[in-house]
């Protein structure tokens, strides 16, 4: 029997695929939505049929170490508390980014799909449309259309709870590590931001300080796991889920599908997932050109092609309408603000964010090609600037950081079991120092929630043209003259 593992994979593929299907039916002409949805659903069915499931006995052995329920029960409690403290449900403090997230949710609830704005009547030169990677909001927005905005927040929270449960179970399946250890690492893993903050700022942060920009505001940041959940859950959670699914996928024919499923909700993390997908599709377990070509043929399966074609055409044409990121994009060395002294920041940034972890993890991973992909990506990404806040670097790094967390768990558990005290002590020390960052993120939530600050909802909507002119960030969400684009001219309802 493999019912448990089969159910986990069905849940995972459904959680990743549902937002895309809802977008198809909400934004596309019906005669385009129908074949697009049919192709995606067919690809999911084919992927499940071609997945190797582990037995229920093996699944339970990994999930309940020594037959104990204690670990998984504590893990569930920690994940739930972590999720509630993020503010996603609206009952705890929401960080600044939620002003935009909540405005997107309001408009998805209050406007018909596709979301168009009548701005000509407000004195604008043209009408507008909501253009953003909001697919992850769509299941909750449907609930909100019936029950209202507060219910949408709880629906989103429930959807993410399902995602976090699937992520943990997939990690347990892949790493065979104690679920409680994996849960603690998910919540507390971070680079050594506190060390960088003290070095660069010369004073300790307050208990609620957001320390992630210690190496230079708007330039260098690799976000901790808690920061990702508390600030950019709409990108990080689907990226974690897709990466966890990839780690558990042996069939090369399913990997292209997984990458495609990540694009609607998390296009930047999908860019970061691409090198790992290419390696697993083509180069893993092969050393000759002939073998690589055979692997590539296997990877170009029916399920991957059926999913990739509609997703690339639809979301590629949709996302490229919004050109707001082009206002600050390029290679770091070519940016006007760049100075060579930033190379010192860069070197210290790499060392503290992941370098020390990599040094301890290397002996166990010296033959692991994906380990070198992680290191290469995290070294290269800071040189490419996209967006006001270096969005590409921060979000394309999410899959690499997630895999690094899983490698940390494997190394730490092995060190404890084999009594490698110095290795265990080194990793625990790094984790404790790094945990200062998630501690400040959680402390900010606790402190400000106790003071009555919860929902960050000042923007309300992107339909107000004058308000958008006064809000520099509105351009990230609104496209003017959408009807001139390929997407709205030929694909949209």
From TrEMBL:
Keyword Transmembrane helix: yes
Record field: transmembrane: 7-25, 31-48, 69-88, 154-174, 180-201, 253-279, 300-322, 342-362, 371-390, 396-415, 422-440
Alphabetized UniProt keyword annotations: Membrane, Transmembrane, Transmembrane helix
Domain of life: Bacteria
Keyword ATP-binding tagged: no
Leader sequence residues: none
The protein's name: Uncharacterized protein
Species of origin: Gehongia tenuis
